[in-house]
């Protein structure tokens, strides 16, 4: 169950629960990839390309989990659905 941010506040930013789930899921995958790649870059001696990663958008998160972090970014208005996007990922 989501306690923070509240679902009501999140639905002010996104038009439906389905859209919210899809947006949070996609952003959570991006956050996980960024964290994994950052760990690899810090713990390997050879150069590691992070140019395609999408960095964290907030200075501080209440949640340590990627889905919670994604929801916090959505609530802050930093992540939204691009209506012109044709991305099918």
Automatic annotation (TrEMBL):
Q: Which Gene3D superfamilies match?
A: 3.90.940.10
The superkingdom of the source organism is Bacteria
EC main class here is transferase
GO cellular component annotations of the record: DNA-directed RNA polymerase complex
Catalytic activity from the UniProt record: RNA(n) + a ribonucleoside 5'-triphosphate = RNA(n+1) + diphosphate
Task: Name one process (GO BP) from the record.
Answer: DNA-templated transcription
Keyword annotations from UniProtKB, A to Z: DNA-directed RNA polymerase, Nucleotidyltransferase, Transcription, Transferase
- Give GO MF terms, alphabetically: DNA binding; DNA-directed RNA polymerase activity
Q: What is its EC number?
A: 2.7.7.6
Q: Which family does it belong to?
A: Belongs to the RNA polymerase subunit omega family.
**NCBIfam families for this protein:** rpoZ (TIGR00690)
Please explain the role this protein plays, according to its UniProt record: Promotes RNA polymerase assembly. Latches the N- and C-terminal regions of the beta' subunit thereby facilitating its interaction with the beta and alpha subunits.
Subunit structure and binding partners: The RNAP catalytic core consists of 2 alpha, 1 beta, 1 beta' and 1 omega subunit. When a sigma factor is associated with the core the holoenzyme is formed, which can initiate transcription.
Q: Which HAMAP family match?
A: RNApol_bact_RpoZ
Recorded protein name is: DNA-directed RNA polymerase subunit omega
